[in-house]
Amino acid sequence: MEAELSSVLLELLRCPKPHHAPLSYDRNEGHLTCSECGEVFRVEDGIPVMLVDEELER
């Protein structure tokens, strides 16, 4: 069973790129997407991997 992101954490998370836009969480795909630049960040065992060098290829 995969761990879920809490709604409180999701409200606090922002893209690590300069514009700091909110992120949306795709539970089915297990990743976060920036609403501003479209960068996609994976979530592993309920932990967001938000390092800019670790973003997923679009």
From TrEMBL:
SUPFAM superfamilies assigned to the protein according to its UniProt record, in alphabetical order: Trm112p-like
**Family matches, as Pfam families:** Trm112p (PF03966)
Specify the superkingdom: Bacteria
Cross-referenced InterPro entries: Trm112-like
Listed name of the protein: Trm112 family protein
Q: Which organism is it from?
A: Natronoglycomyces albus
